[in-house]
Each structure stands twice: as structure tokens, then as C-alpha cells.
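Per your request, structure below.
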């Protein structure tokens, strides 16, 4: 099973970015943890971060035929990007949306997601733990839906 973790804009600054909201764990640490946990679940995982919408779209396209499932924290693009939604639907790869913070407990503009209604599931509010929960949920979903 091959997975892809996508991190959107400003998540490269995790560790120092608004630690009261996002915690002190760095993206490197999150990726290392994902690699370790995915391996323990018998899956491979590639991790990719970009501050550019088109680069994320390209990475989704590259997953077509190669990737079984996607974990995506699209960060601010969650609330703005029809292009990311269209890319995910175009490749038809099952995905789990996740956020470190509870976006529903924050500003109204963060309550809407362009990705959520077509996701396998959505996890938010558990800090770096959201990645672990999303990984476990995605792997369980993919295992259950295998023919
Ligand atoms: C975020 C929540 C988004 O609203 C915000 O724009 C981010 C991070 C989160 O993980 O909590 O950049 O996706």
C-alpha cells in the first residue's frame, strides 16, 4: 500500500508558527513519525509540502496509478481551493482531510472546506496527533475497501 501525505502553505513553519494553536512539533518530526507508523502498518508513505497551490496539484496528479490513498492538510487552501478539490476528484484517490487545530472552533472563514464533502473522513483538533489518527483511519478504510 502506497500513501502520500500532502502539507499545504505555511506548514513548513510548524514548530515556531503560532505554537499556541499548532504546537511545537516540527513538520520534519511529523513526517518522520508518519514514515515510522506507516511502515509499522505495512504501508509506504511519501511526504510533500508546498506553499504553492499548483505544486500541490501537480503532486496529486503524479499520484495517479501509483498512490492508494492521500492524507492532506491543505492548510489555508482548504478554505479557498477549487483547484485542489478538482485535482483530488480527477485522480479519484481516496483521501482523508486533516488539521492540527479545530477549524470549527476558529474564525467563520475556516468552517468551510472545499475538500471535506468528498473525503473519506476529516480529522481536526488533535495537534500533531491528527496526522496519526488520519493515517490509521485511511489505512483501515483502504484495507476494508480492498476487493
Ligand atoms: C490548518 C487550519 C487552517 O485553517 C490554517 O489555514 C492552517 C493550518 C490546521 O492544520 O489547523 O494553515 O490547516
Amino acid at each position: 500500500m502506497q500513501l502520500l501525505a500532502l502539507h499545504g502553505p505555511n506548514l513548513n513553519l510548524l514548530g515556531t508558527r503560532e505554537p499556541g494553536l499548532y504546537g511545537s512539533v516540527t513538520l520534519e518530526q511529523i513526517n518522520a513519525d508518519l514514515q515510522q507508523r506507516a511502515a509499522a502498518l505495512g504501508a509506504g508513505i511519501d511526504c510533500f509540502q508546498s506553499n504553492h497551490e499548483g505544486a500541490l496539484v501537480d503532486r496529486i496528479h503524479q499520484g495517479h496509478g501509483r498512490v492508494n490513498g492521500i492524507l492532506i492538510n491543505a492548510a489555508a487552501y482548504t478554505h479557498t481551493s477549487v483547484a485542489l478539490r478538482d485535482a483530488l476528484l480527477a485522480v479519484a484517490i481516496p483521501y482523508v482531510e486533516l488539521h492540527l487545530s479545530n477549524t470549527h472552533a476558529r474564525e467563520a472563514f475556516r468552517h468551510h472546506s472545499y475538500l471535506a464533502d468528498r473525503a473519506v473522513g476529516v480529522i481536526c483538533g488533535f495537534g500533531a496527533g491528527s496526522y496519526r489518527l488520519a493515517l490509521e483511519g485511511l489505512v483501515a478504510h483502504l484495507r476494508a475497501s480492498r476487493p
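The first strand starts at residue 2 and ends at 7.

Regards,
D.
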